[in-house]
Amino acid sequence: MPWLLLTLTLFAGFFAFGAWVGLRRGRAAPWCVGAAVVLIFLRIFWRLYPQFEYPLFPFDWYVDVRPWWVFAPAQFAVGVGAAKMSTKGARVGVAMLGLLLWVVSGQRMVLSYMLPQDEMKGTPDEKGVVRQTTDYTCGAAAAATVLTQMGVRATEREMAALCGTNAFTGTDEFGVAKGLRARLPGRNVRMQGGDWEDLKRAPMPAAVTIRHVPWIDHWVVVLEVQDAAVIVGDPVGGRKVMKKEVFLRRWRGVLVTVAR
């Protein structure tokens, strides 16, 4: 809980710092807002093209800050905007936007801190696929499936803890890789972008993300690549076959593999 209070205090501090910068004369405000906007768009760019982010942050600690750091520049920019508004009503309106951002980030952090681990009951089925039992643990279940397919028994609950699963973004690639490294010390766990040929050459099993709904992805595990189809372990649907064209249409070009 102390880290939660510290983080929320920092977010409020970024808003206050932005308001202070906005009240000062000179070019500091536009330059600082420009830098904040660049960081926000960089986060969006990495969301769309994550392969450019992987080599920059090969650190396990990044799992804990990746879902949240964008709120800091966002709060700063909103703070500057609130100070620069010409009318009281506009200043209050922009400040309320900052409060809304703070509440949303805080709510998600609290939900993440209070993850109902007792509800995570996914274990390997008869085909070695671990099912997810919450809306946001497909990544943890996929990591457990990878381990199970490699002969290392794992559960959804265990991997949710090791992968740093949260109630805001679920489990991202950095989290899946972190969890696999924790259970497979000394093994080369790799995050990468790729195409069909890269997938065919990749060591199996490989955890991949596919498009589910706009801005929400879903983890599955590729168990086998065939000429016209892939066999996947789906945390929702279990072991199944996806036609090549269907898979390629939904695959985000992201995979996490473990070198054999």
Structure description:
The structure is a single chain. The chain is α+β, with helices and mostly antiparallel strands and 260 residues long. The protein folds into two domains: 2-113, no CATH class; 119-258, Cysteine proteinases (Cathepsin B, Chain A), CATH 3.90.70.10. The protein has ten helices and six strands; from the N terminus they run ααααααααβαββββαβ. The chain has helices spanning 2-23, 28-48, 62-65, 71-84, 88-113, 138-149, 156-163, 173-183, 196-201, 244-250, and strands spanning 189-193, 206-213, 216-225, 229-234, 238-243, 251-258. The chain has a six-stranded antiparallel beta sheet with strand order 1-6-2-3-4-5, with helices on both faces. The longest helix has 26 residues, at 88-113.
Question: What's the helix-strand series?
Answer: HHHHHHHHEHEEEEHE
Task: State Rg.
Answer: 21 Å
Helix/strand/pairing category: alpha+beta
At CATH level 3, the topology of the largest domain is: Cathepsin B, Chain A
How much of the sequence lies in strands comes to: 15-25%
- CATH superfamily of the largest domain, by name, is Cysteine proteinases
Show unreliable segments.
none
Number of strands: 6
Mean pLDDT, to the nearest integer, reads: 91
CATH class of the largest domain: Alpha Beta
**How would a textbook summarize the main sheet?**
6 strands, antiparallel
